[in-house]
């Protein structure tokens, strides 16, 4: 079966919960046994209590009972079976659904972890809304498939076999008549499953696009309002929304068309049995109770047939979602550590770019034969026109992307052979967009160093000039910043990002346009913060700000390749320290 195979994507998350699922499946089989017993009290009432048939054979123990007592017994048995059935249903629901929720949580956690460790190249392509849709809706549908497999497939199959055996023993002719419609039904179910799967796949793809667009538009609500482009936003959302609606309606039409077809076919089978069985009753070849039992069993036979065809639709939907879940789980696009990767050196000599070539897209080189050496303790300012690749240089140092050619070295060791986490721990990064979380000021600063104490955070805040504005926030360092730090000004956000770098104690600080678009007063505060924060550290600074570039020991221009050889030369550290001491650094 194709759909269950695709559900194997949930396998590792299912395994720890397979005992619970197995228990649920066993109880469901027990429930099938109860269902198979349910027609018999009616037969007892009709044939023996009302019809006066003699109680012989395995019913002889009831022979002394009068008709009234037999009727009460039949009623009580019917109620008793219903109660047991209900209790089983309760336990099955709790066990299976509970296990499904746990499996869902585990699957989401695995997917999230997977997504968080994929390369930025992958994230550049995958919209975050699309990813959210896969983590939530698609995981939910895969779980529906797992639950349906546990609670429907096995019992329906057991029920089918059980009823077939009983009917075969009871009346093989009527069984054959009743089964006449089943091959037609099965053929239609197979075709239907393929159609449902295709329409569901299309609907899920459209839904993912809608989630992507929604996240993008909501994140940019400020731009939409500031530019008065509500028409554009609602237009784009409306188009995507309509596309989802149309795809879902198509999927519903395909799904719904199936129900009446199956019901009519099954009704034809029942009618044939009723006519032929009724004639047998009239001929005296069969009792009324017997006919009632056969028709009840036939209903029980059709119920799993209908159940299995419905299951096929659920699995088709789950299969479409499983493909989308699998795309995340099985994506191996990541910056990975080699087996036996080293701990990155402590950065006591230098960092070097040697003949580095890099491109985000195959046909668009960003860096080509790029060389740069930054000695430990040095502050280098990287300048160059917009889009030349300055931020890219910082990304390559952090090993957020792998270089295509050449090498990035820390103390002479290629970062490619070092564990990513240890490489990143050598750098404190202040990105152009400060990347603040929806957490408190203190939590945002401590993000730079999980071991930071409250005192470390406050000291970093002091050094990064956060103290200058913290008094104006309602709860000081415990004020929640809102999504992306919306409750702060640009300069305030940058100073928190600098405090985050300060608290990290990494030997080298990477700063990307930290004073861009700030007014002179805020820029001066940020420059002061940087000077305090970067004392005694190696610094690579990207800026167009003259005041800020003045704190550098060297300025490197990315637009002048002929300078690069000169810049790659080692710097005299003693000279550097002397210049720093004399106040030039
Ligand atoms: N994630 C990405 N995917 C594809 N191309 C990218 C990506 N990030 C940057 N680029 C491209 O790479 C080039 C270098 O970008 P980068 O951000 O390094 O430039 P920059 O010199 O820092 O520019 P600016 O001064 O404007 O910040 C640009 O042409 C940019 O379009």
TrEMBL record:
Its main location: membrane. Keywords: ATP-binding, Membrane, Nucleotide-binding, Transmembrane, Transmembrane helix. It is found in: Cell membrane. Residues 351-585 form the ABC transporter domain. Pfam families: ABC_membrane, ABC_tran. SUPFAM superfamilies: ABC transporter transmembrane region, P-loop containing nucleoside triphosphate hydrolases. PROSITE patterns: ABC_TM1F, ABC_TRANSPORTER_1, ABC_TRANSPORTER_2. It comes from the Bacteria. The chain crosses the membrane at residues 20-40, 61-84, 157-190, 260-279. This is ATP-binding cassette subfamily B protein/subfamily B ATP-binding cassette protein MsbA. It comes from Kribbella rubisoli.
């Amino acid at each position: 079966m194709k759909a269950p195979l695709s559900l194997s994507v949930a396998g590792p998350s299912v395994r720890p919960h397979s005992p619970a699922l197995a228990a649920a499946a066993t109880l469901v089989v027990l429930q099938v046994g109860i269902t198979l017993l349910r027609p018999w009290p009616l037969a007892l009432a009709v044939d023996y209590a009302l019809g006066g048939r003699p109680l012989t054979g395995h019913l002889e123990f009831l022979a002394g009972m009068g008709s009234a007592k037999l009727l009460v017994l039949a009623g009580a048995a019917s109620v008793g079976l219903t109660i047991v059935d209900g209790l089983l249903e309760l336990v099955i629901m709790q066990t299976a659904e509970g296990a499904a929720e746990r499996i869902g949580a585990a699957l989401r956690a695995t997917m999230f972890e997977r997504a968080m460790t994929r390369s930025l190249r992958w994230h550049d392509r995958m919209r975050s809304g699309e990813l959210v849709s896969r983590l939530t809706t698609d995981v939910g549908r895969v779980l529906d498939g797992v639950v349906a497999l546990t609670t429907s497939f096995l019992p329906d199959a057991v029920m089918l076999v059980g009823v077939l055996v009983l009917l075969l023993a009871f009346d093989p002719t009527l069984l054959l008549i009743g089964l006449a419609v089943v091959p037609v039904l099965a053929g239609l179910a197979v075709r239907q499953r393929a159609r449902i799967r295709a329409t569901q796949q299309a609907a899920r793809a459209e839904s993912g696009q809608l989630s992507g667009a929604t996240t993008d538009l909501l994140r940019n609500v400020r731009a939409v309002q500031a530019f008065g482009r509500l028409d554009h936003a609602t237009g784009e959302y409306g188009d995507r929304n309509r596309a989802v609606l149309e795809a879902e309606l198509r999927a519903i039409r395909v799904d719904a068309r199936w129900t009446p077809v199956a019901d009519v076919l099954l009704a034809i089978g029942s009618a044939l049995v009723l006519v032929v069985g009724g004639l047998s009753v009239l001929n005296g070849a069969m009792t009324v109770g017997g006919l009632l039992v056969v028709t009840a069993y036939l209903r029980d036979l059709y119920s799993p047939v209908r159940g299995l065809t419905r299951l096929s639709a659920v699995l088709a939907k789950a299969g479409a979602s499983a493909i989308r879940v699998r795309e995340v789980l099985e994506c191996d696009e990541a910056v990975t550590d080699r087996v036996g990767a080293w701990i990155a050196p402590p950065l006591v000599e230098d960092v070097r770019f040697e003949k580095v070539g890099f491109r985000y897209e195959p046909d668009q080189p960003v860096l080509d034969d790029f060389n740069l050496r930054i000695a430990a303790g040095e502050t280098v300012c990287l300048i160059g026109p917009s889009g030349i690749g300055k931020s890219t240089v910082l990304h390559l140092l952090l090993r957020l992307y792998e270089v295509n050619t050449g090498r990035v070295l820390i103390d002479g060791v290629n970062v490619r052979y070092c564990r990513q986490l240890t490489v990143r721990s050598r750098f404190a990064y202040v990105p152009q967009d400060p990347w603040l979380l929806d957490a408190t000021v203190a939590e945002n600063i401590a993000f730079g160093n999980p071991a930071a104490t409250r005192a470390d955070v406050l000291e970093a805040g002091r050094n990064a000039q956060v103290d200058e504005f913290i008094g104006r926030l309602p709860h000081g360092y415990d004020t929640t910043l809102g999504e992306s730090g919306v409750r702060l000004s640009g300069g305030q956000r940058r100073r928190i990002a600098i405090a985050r770098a300060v608290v990290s104690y990494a030997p080298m600080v990477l700063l990307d346009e930290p004073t861009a678009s700030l007014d002179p007063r805020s820029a001066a505060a940020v420059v002061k913060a940087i000077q305090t924060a970067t004392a005694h550290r190696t610094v690579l600074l990207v800026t167009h700000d003259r005041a800020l570039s003045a704190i550098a020991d060297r300025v490197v221009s990315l637009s002048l390749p002929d300078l690069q050889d000169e810049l790659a030369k080692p710097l005299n550290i003693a000279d550097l320290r002397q210049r720093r001491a004399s106040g030039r650094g």
